[in-house]
Fold each of these.
Amino acid sequence: MKCYGICVKDGFLGDELGSQVLREVEVLNQSGQFRNGQLVSQRTIPSRNIRGDQIVWVEGGELGCESIRSLMGRIDEVIMYSAMNGRLGDCMINGRTKAMVACYPGNGTGYVRHVDNPNGDGRCITCIYYLNKNWDVKVHGGLLQIFPESRTVVANIEPIFDRLLIFWSDRRNPHEVKPAYAARYAITVWYFDAKERAEAKEKYRLGFLSWFRNGLLATGIGVISYVQSDVGCEAAYGFFILGGMCVSFGSTSYIGNLFAVRRTMLLSLPAVLLNGLVVSSAALFWLCAVALYIGRLEVEIVREGEEGCEDCRNDEKDRGKKNK
């Protein structure tokens, strides 16, 4: 890993245990539990145009997933042993994701060139275990190509049965899955670096606070404009709307990101829902307050307009009397 950023181990579990894992994965597929793979980042391009796999997340304690749990335990041993012996550099492993069981259904779909962790979400190591017996890339496709950073070579990884692939999850290893023309199975787990994961959680938290602060600032300027400016109502109206937009965008973005990274960041659904409830409640309270101020300003603007019209009518009457 230190030299090349990639490590391949064939015959990782052995034929017996590897075959048991394969049977469990096939049962999961036949039971209809797989769903279309999603993207971690928010994109306008439909996910199916980027990745064509179907996935299910497995924790290891589910009924019928005993062999998958054994696989996860074996990978844990490899990663922790490597970390303790300094084979993983400065990474301080403090957890991993659930296992992502993936199937490319064999209809010519793949996964375009991408990076697992382009934005520092905490994942540092990617481990992929392949389950495809008698696989021939010339016939079945599905080749994994890795393009190591700062190297001219390309690593071509055939997804053959009982092969374990380990590589850095960040921008050092862009990779893609070529179109597969037969059912292609793999199980992936990602391991977290303690420092980067803590920074990622803080980044998501501060993201909302930044937008909320901007909303507070805009609203405060609106209040000052209303009190001190000669064009107070119109200026305050604009700043109140800007404040509401900041709070709305910040809360929506925060909640969307929470759900997008829930699995990769090991966030429990109750924790995500609780965070979402707190943020949405704060945003709703703020928006209601802003709406009340805007409503009050609209009344005053209309009133000022009516008073101005009344003054104009009085001036016209006075001019008419003088002309007579």
Amino acid sequence: MSIPSTPAEFRASDVVQSNAALAARLFDEHDATEHGGENETGSALEACAQLRKRVLELDYGLVYPRTRKPARTTRQSFEGNGHALASLAQPLVPVASERSVQSRETTAPGLNETRRDVRKIGPLISAELLESEALSSALALANRRPKIEHAQWKLYRVVSGHLGWVRSVAVDASNEWFASGSADRTIKVWDMACGKLKLTLAGHIGTVRALACSERHPYLFSAGDDKMVKCWDLETNRVVRHFHGHLSGVYSMALHPSLDVLATAGRDAAVRVWDIRTRTEILTLGGHREQVNGLIAQREEPELISASADATVRLWDLAAAKTRTTLTHHRKGVRALARHPALFTFVSSSADQTKTWSLPRGELLRNFETGGEIINALAVNADGVLVSGSDKGQLRFFDYMSAKQFQEWRCPAQSGSLDAEASVFATAFDMSGTRLITGEGDSSIKMFRQV
């Protein structure tokens, strides 16, 4: 055990050497006692006592003779004793008894009094310091992640066919096709492998702003500025259900992955939950003050997450039909949401910053610098690649864990389009996470893959 720093300034090496010399002297005197009689007995006992004292010093720290108690220290002297405060986070040196603690003396002003004060306030201060140190250690451990090198993404296909802005994109669970919705009021279904048009669905009388593909049924859901929410049967290519109730345009939707439940939201600031079998509106969730731009539905709690132009993100308890948590970290309207497919986290974006959050409580994890652009769309794949699409046509690729940007892509407008139309309105990864699909303001759909 190491000797603590004290006024006597014992060093471990000095103590060991002195103990060896003392033991040798003890043995010599013991031999002399046997041959020289009782006159040498006192010195031998004294040497034995000194050796015993040194052993106690090594085991329990230095033992000092009893002296007068030092004057009681003030709060100011306690706060000024920096090394004493720092020692509160460390276990005290073990002592033989409470009496020996009280009998120690030190030249450090008020240290004995400080240690007695620790019995009263020490647990509180020590707990706070230990909690702070534990938190710092946990954060340091969390930040020591292996550096991941992501491959660069490259444009490999431009799909044309729409006559207006492409405002929404959705990928089927089979990964064989994807759908796009446009300002030309049509929905088009495309072959994933070759990019050829397979089907055009007409029926909306306004911009198609939201799409969702069912994993459990051959259904495609759509919503738009015409306040309509439609369910398309892709086996017959017809609308089989209408959902009426929104008072204005519908901007976002999300299908629950394990329940026959659809959530929709839009300009009327209400989140509506529907039973897709009976077309019944189950819940109307109020709380947002402005239009709702993004929705996430998931199996785990919270089962529904919404983002609004009122600069808040809400986590909803569907069973209680109320808000569980309201996240107010954004300073500007939140325009996009995306959930990580493998981690229990999600990401939100506004004109000020892009932020990632942990679930279920919604703790802020980290911020992404997006250059102050207006972000319209977000997408995350299982490999930890986060993509944001902006009004200026910028695609930014980030490492999800470190928040570091590793690529930027400027999407030029297609021939015959204005530069102002070089905007990204929708982004989606395919089911494998190796292909990225974007909906553009120049009426095109662009497909990217890793080099």
Amino acid sequence: MEALARLTLLMLLRLPNTVAQSMGCFHYGYAWTNAMTNVTGNPFTKISAPECQLQCRNTIGCTGFGYYPITGSCYLGGSGGALYEAKGAIAGPRECVSPDPACVSLPDASFPGSTPEKSMKAWPGGVQPTSLQCWPRRSDGQVTRCRNQTAIVLEDTQDGWPGRCEGMVKVTDLKGEETCQLRCMMSPLCSVWSIETTSDASGSPMCWNGMLGTNCYNGNGPTPVRAQRLQHGTYRVLMQTTGVQVLGLHNSFGGTVYKTWEEGAQHCKFECRSFLLCQFWQYSKTYGCYLEIPSEGVVGYPLTTSGPFQSVRLDSEAAADVVAGEMLQHNCVGDMSPLPTAMPTGNEVHLVVPGMESPSTETSTQGGWPWWVSYLIFIFVVLLLCVVITAVWMGLEDRKKRRAREKNVRGAWDPAGGHARGHSAEQAGFLQNIHMPQLPQTWHMPNMHLPFQVAAGDRIGLTVAGESPPNQIGTGLARTGASYLPRRVRWKSCPKIMRASSSESLGPAGLVTDNSSPKLVTDISSPKLSPGVDLRKSTNPANTGDKAENARKVLEARRQKQRNEETKVTPSAPVPPAPTSAAEETSQGFSQMLGNRILQGVHDILSIMDDKVENLVAEVAAMRKDMRGSSLAPGVPGASQLFFP
């Protein structure tokens, strides 16, 4: 429990430093010399390298530490200590810095020095970078795959590379959709993969993976159907080793494999780049390619040119034969590189990784589609949105226009809408193109807005010019709403009563109200009626019956004459309409419908009035008989003469 509590506290307090330590702060497989002897309890027992580093930070005089995970021993080192190789150990400084100098700096010209101290001082951080110091690791110290750079293809059998490498291991546990190539890409220590021509017991091609894959040109390895050499992550060159001999390297292939040494040196570099444990490669014209392979030999640390730990020779015959060579550092920087989703085929796309020296044979499988495809998709989506928005807007505008037209029509032809006497400017503009039908010339259209509204209590009389209006009219008048009109006479039938033929010359007359009420002017015409004549001033009641009889005869004659004229009316031949647009056809159709309705209404009103005229004349005659004490002046025409000559 105590150890668990200490670990939790350490993770909370030291998390930022832990992140930095994974990228250059710690040295795996190394320890410090000159352990501190004046500190009680040294070595301490700790549960992790970060906790051991915290102990060093809290101890005066401590400059570095060495931690052994298997035993949990934590050694504190003083000033003047040096790194040395120690299997299973983890060494680190008192404090970590970010970025660590080992991952970004280069040595000066004095490197390598004649002694370990001089070689260390040649580096800005005071320490020569160790193997995979700047590569990500797991908590147990083992290397993990590079998250942002999965793998790139360096050599491929499609480009003429034989791929018959030695040192390969058969893979028999592929799972599901996992391919031989994907297994190698997901394993940071896998450099080469190949598929053999023969198949296993299940009928599937045999898969091989190799940590390095040596002697791939003249080797005894299986003949592959497809093979590739991969590089995990990225790298940087720390130093050129041309003209010197680095001791402890292993020969990978001879100097006669390629036609030129330049081509051989390039492929030698590929092999070192593909193998994470390789820091040095050299190419000799005579002996070919040499690589650092820890299982075959060890290169001294740090590099020195003399002394008991000499690791570099400057004046040997082999050094003079080295025409190319480098000291590399594997790291994990750069852009994200996607993993392949299927086995590589003959149509594989090969890409050169920016910032890396490689010939045209350096290839990489690349997923996804080109950038211009994404650009075209974006443009298509934008255009589609514009079309949809435009269509919606046009639909809304068309709906508004239709509603406005319907509202104008209702307001123009509905008397209840407040436009019975006229139209507004907007309605007039809409209706100006309506074509009214041509009526027969013998029809007389009176004022369709009669009668005007008369206030309640006003009396309406029949007067002529020059006379005062009567005070009252006998029982022959009935009150209708707010106006006094003759019984059985309604406002819709008044205009038809006033109808007259075009062949007669009639004079104007009016209906006026008492108290200066508005005049109800009609198109009544009578050649025998003079202005201002009052019906009640007639002094010839004896002639009332004769005049009524004459009025009936005149009415019957006029009705017969009207029928004869209507039968003679023949409509002119229709003129073929000119080609019209859809809007004009709609307007003309509406005009024709409106004209038909007006004609039908006029016809109905005339029919009603024809039936009521006879009753009206009889009623006027009866009214005259009922008048008693009448003061009608002699010579004044009767009611029949007032309405009809």
